[in-house]
TrEMBL record:
Listed InterPro entries: Calcineurin-like_PHP, Metallo-depent_PP-like, Pantetheine_PDE
SUPFAM superfamilies, A to Z: Metallo-dependent phosphatases (SSF56300)
Listed name of the protein: Calcineurin-like phosphoesterase domain-containing protein
Short name of any one Pfam family annotated for the protein: Metallophos
Originating species: Gossypium raimondii
Single GO MF descriptor: hydrolase activity
Domain Calcineurin-like phosphoesterase: 46-138
Superkingdom of origin organism: Eukaryota
Coiled-coil residue spans: none
């Protein structure tokens, strides 16, 4: 569930429809987490901030990173949930700037981080991954699980697979293929045994987490509060229904069942108020509790997307999710993403929102 919706541009009838939509969501398994103040207490208190999808290949986004205070966060933790930059040099600069501003910086790679389109060196996406991880080690950026002031923080490597999508496909309209819509199929270069077209990449990245299993078990036995984070989406409920998406096949390239299984193995099946998972990738502001785990996405996103947000979309980032032993934060603003819109006409489950169809010149 998204934390809030701007109604200023809707008619009275459309506002009523949206209120009904929100009431339906409240009756489901998704609900708002308890909200507490994000203000820092002077002199003490661990704060954890989250951010994803920085895309600092855009000069506006790099300028935003540079604008972050070098004093305000000097004792804070930042979790970076992937998609820092496509270009290696921009990645290094961005992570260096963040490490200068935060005491602890954690990182997991996203798909854009592993693109190889414009690199001067000739390497594939796995070689680039290792290069990024080596660079993080040199910069003092954490990519492995750790405990800070009694709080367990666990980065999780992941990739998506098409079988993650279990919702019925939209039929009767022309929808661009995954190859056309998803640049990963062309911008990433994988060795012959790995492919975006099956589950091999999702399995490969999930198995990367096995080397940290002993550390994870120690964190589970010693920490009552744990934050996990990944770039990709662990549950399909964390993405709007296909009829509300500009690209209805988006769920096929966003998440992994193995990721959700691993999250459950860490937080437990029943979970508690101290379980939180942070993710990125879809550029949706998201803050919801699903089956006992709080899921948060706080993307910087593309400059054109930020222009659609309330407050200009920059004043509330990075987003504070943990303060002095408690989970919670100020209300996260929401915005319209390039990928989706909510249809106030509440159509049947398999009917495309009319403006989505027009977007593809389908009707």
């Amino acid at each position: 569930m998204i934390s809030c919706l701007s109604l200023s541009s809707y008619s009275f009838c459309e506002k009523i429809a949206l209120k009904k939509y929100r009431r339906c969501v409240k009756r489901g398994c998704i609900k708002r987490p308890q909200v507490v103040s994000g203000a820092k207490k002077d002199g003490f208190g661990l704060r954890v901030f989250v951010l994803s999808d920085l895309h600092t290949d855009y000069p506006e986004n790099m300028a935003w990173v540079r604008s972050l205070s070098t004093k305000r966060h000097e004792k804070d933790v930042l979790l970076v949930a992937g998609d820092v930059a496509e270009m290696y040099d921009n990645f290094i600069l961005t992570m260096s700037l963040l490490k200068e501003r935060f005491e602890y910086v954690f990182f997991v790679p996203g798909n854009h981080d592993l693109w190889c389109r414009w690199e001067t060196e000739d390497f594939d996406s796995l070689e680039k991954l290792n290069k990024l991880l080596d660079a993080c080690k040199q910069l003092g950026v954490e990519t492995n699980p750790a405990v800070i002031d009694g709080l367990g923080i666990i980065p999780l490597f992941s990739w998506y697979h098409e079988s993650f999508d279990r919702e019925d496909d939209i039929v009767g309209v022309r929808i661009p293929s995954l190859d056309m819509a998803c640049k990963d199929f062309h911008a990433c270069k994988w060795p012959g045994n790995l492919s975006n077209r099956d589950t091999s990449l999702a399995l490969y990245f999930d198995l990367m987490n096995e080397k940290n299993q002993n550390t994870v078990k120690r964190i589970q036995s010693t920490c009552s509060q744990i934050i996990t984070f990944s770039h990709f989406v662990p549950r399909q409920e964390l993405c709007p229904e296909k009829r509300m998406l500009f690209y209805p096949n988006l769920p096929k390239v966003i998440g992994s069942d193995w990721l959700e299984d691993r999250i459950r193995s860490i937080h437990g099946v029943e979970s508690s108020s101290f379980a939180c998972h942070v993710f990125g990738h879809t550029h949706f502001c998201w803050d919801a509790v699903v089956d006992g785990i709080r899921y948060v996405q706080a993307p910087l996103a593309y400059p054109r997307e930020r222009k659609r947000r309330m407050n200009g979309g920059e004043t509330w980032l990075p987003f504070c999710i943990y303060l002095d032993g408690e989970f919670g934060a100020k209300v996260m603003p929401c915005y319209w993403s390039d990928y989706y819109a909510i249809n106030p006409r509440t159509p049947s489950n398999m009917e495309l929102a009319p403006w989505v169809a027009r977007f593809y010149n389908l009707i």
